[in-house]
Amino acid sequence: MEQEFLFEKPTLSILQKTILESLESDGLSTQNEDSFNISIDQAIEISDTNRSVLGIPLSIPVQIHIGSSGTLNMEEFGFILSFKETRASSPIHFSKEGDFFHINGKRYLGSSDQIKVLRTLTNHQKVNNHKFEENLMALGSIKRYGAKLIESGSLVFDSYLKNEQVEVAEKLRLDFRENPDGSINVVPSIDHNADEGFQKAYDIYPKVKDVYNSQDGDRRVRVVIPEESKPSLNSLKSEFKRINGEKKDSVLKNPSNYFDESTFDLDHYSKRVYELGLYEPKYYPFIKPFSTNWVSGVTVEEASGKRSEILIEDEGEYKALHSGIQIAEAKGEDKVEFKGSLLPVDDAISLRDSYIAIQENRVDKSGIRDSNGRKVLIIHENVEDLEFSIDSLIEIPHVFIPPKRLKSKFSLLPHQVEGVAWLQSLCKSNSGALLGDDMGLGKTLQILSFIDWSFEYQQEIGISKPNLIVAPVTLLENWENEFKLFFEPHLNFIRYYGKEIKEIDLFALGNKDVLLTTYETLRSKQLLLGRINWFSAILDEAQRIKTPGTMVTNAAKALNAEFKIAMTGTPVENSWMDLWCLSDFVAPGLLGSARIFNSKYNNALKEEEADIKALGDDIRSQLGIYLKRRVKSQILKDLPSKEQVFFPREMPDVQKSKYLKELEFYQNNRGSLNQLLSTISKLRMISDHPYLDLAPEDLNSFSTLQLINSSAKMIETSQILESIKAKNEKVILFSPFEKVQNILSRMVIDLFGIPVSIINGQTATVESKGKVSRQKLIDKFQSVSGFNVIIMSPIAAGYGLNVTGANHVIHFTRHWNPAKENQATDRVYRIGQKKSVHIYYPMATIQGKETFDQKLDKLLTMKIQLSDASLYPSDAAEVKFSDFEELLA
Question: Which residues form the Helicase ATP-binding domain (predicted)?
Answer without folding.
Answer: 424-589
